[in-house]
Amino acid sequence: MQNILGDRRAIVTLLGPALLVYTLVMLVPVFWSLGYTLFDGNAISGFTFVGFDNLARLFTDPRVADALRFTIQYALVITVGQVALGYLLSLFYVFILKNRGSVVRTLVFFPVVVPTVAVALLFQKMFEVAPQTGPVNLLLNVFGVESVDWFGSAGSAFAVLVIMDLWRSMGFYAVLLYTGLLDIPDDILESARIDGASTWRVIRSIVLPLSLPVLLSSLIFSINGTLKVFDSIVALTNGGPGTATTPLTLYMYSTSFSYGEYGYGASIALVLTILCLLVTVFIFRSSRRDLTKG
Questions:
Q1: DSSP string, 117-128
Q2: Is the pLDDT of residue 279 over 70?
Q3: Buried-state track 175-203, b at ≥16 Cβ within 10 A, e below 16
Q4: Which residue in 232, 98, 245 sits closest to 164, CA to CA?
Q5: Which band of pLDDT confidence, cut at 50, 70 and 90, is reported for residue 106?
Q6: What's the pLDDT band for 156 if we cut at 50, 70, 90?
Q7: Which of 66, 111, 128, 235 would disulfide-bridge 168, Cβ 3.0–4.6 Å?
Q8: Under a CB-based contact definition with an 8 Å cutoff, are residues 93 and 175 in contact?
Q9: Residue 15 lies inside a defined structural domain of this protein
């Protein structure tokens, strides 16, 4: 193995194809998109060089501010919900179900593999108010509450979106965090129990500190995924009512492909990329600072 790693030809042979594919699939489109920010137009009408006009337009476009605000709000709420519910479920698997929870884990994980469009159609029918009354409004009517137009206002539409995305994603984070908890040595937990530590004390003083690396990974994975949300919002609300639930990704898509403004759409994508990088760096620096203090 040492001879292979010391041979430059072997390294190029082993890594060359993977690096070539990564460059063509990832790096080239990134730089191509950056180049679009300097132009106005599209492939049909042609491109006109405008310099930094597209980037300057970002600061005066109120829809960018609204989309950015919604993107951050959505990302914070869903990330906290995904990781918190996933961690609680993983603790439930380890300390309550133990080795008997395979069926429960499968059922909780099942929404993850269901197509997003199917999940969105299900929730549309569940919260429907017209032409038919959905199960949620029927339940409200039973208790004497009038039916609610869940998709008619920004707050209720956002609430349905949060419920749907947490339901379909918490099983994934539960399994991810569960595998991290399984790496904690059993002898440490057993020693704590022998010393008389309660389950809550074991979780707070042993399990939580030892599971911080997998929690950090889940946090980064979740925040980057939620900042780039697209499919679930398009399938459930399509950005409505109005533009109340329109994230940066949907605004970028409509700008580029509905209005044919490739350059301005690429500029919006640049904002989203910078936002993802800043959030990731912030999480890494915060976690490193906490570890140093510890």
A1: HHHHHHHHHHT-
A2: yes
A3: bbbbebbeebeeeebeebeeeebeeeebb
A4: 232
A5: confident
A6: very high
A7: 111
A8: no
A9: no
Task: Kindly report the CATH number assigned to the domain that includes residue 220.
Answer: 1.10.3720.10
Domain of residue 90: give its range: 60-114+158-293
In a domain, 28, yes or no: no
Token representation of residue 34: 């950056």
Sign of the Cα torsion 146, 148, 152, 155 reads positive
For residue 172, what are the contacts with CB-CB under 8 A and spacing of at least 6?
A: 86, 109, 112
Q: Say which residues have a Cβ less than 8 Å from residue 125's Cβ, sequence separation at least 6.
A: 134
**DSSP H or E run through 48:** strand 46-49
The answer as to whether 51 is a domain residue is no
Total of domains in the chain: 1
pTM of the model: 0.88
The residue among 70 and 284 whose pLDDT is bigger is 70
